[in-house]
Design brief:
With 97 residues, this protein is an alpha+beta fold. The termini are close together. The chain has a single domain, classed as TATA-Binding Protein (2-Layer Sandwich), CATH 3.30.310. A six-stranded antiparallel beta sheet has the order 2-3-4-5-1-6, covered by helices on one side. Helix content is 28%, strand content 36%. It holds the Pfam family DUF2218. This is 2,4-dihydroxyhept-2-ene-1,7-dioic acid aldolase. InterPro entries: UCP028291.
Length: 97
């Protein structure tokens, strides 16, 4: 798997994470609680989320490295839709070794 992670600073990280999980639960077998979530978009593509009082950490994992950038954008676009009342700043993705 190829993976990358991004940390988004926001006091609403838990709320946004839960909203994302509930949103995607209509199509996927999402698993989540108050602090973490897993969205299995496909057998070879998923997003892990962990939230705390300071923000949310997003980790996108894909089998096909060519899909990584697209999936990062899908996740961030959805997050920004839920966070439309605040500026989340630039989101920087870092490769996971």
């Amino acid at each position: 798997m190829t993976a990358s992670t991004a940390r988004v600073a926001t006091a609403n990280g838990r709320r946004y994470m839960i909203q994302l999980c509930k949103h995607w639960a209509h199509k996927f077998e999402v698993v989540h609680d108050e602090n973490q979530g897993l969205v299995p978009f496909a057998p070879d593509c998923r997003c892990r989320m962990a939230a705390d009082a300071e923000g949310v950490t997003l980790t996108v994992e894909v089998e096909d490295a060519g899909q990584l950038e697209r999936m990062q954008q899908v996740v961030i676009d959805h997050l920004k839709r839920f966070a439309f009342r605040e500026d989340l700043g630039e989101v920087v993705w870092t490769p996971v070794p």
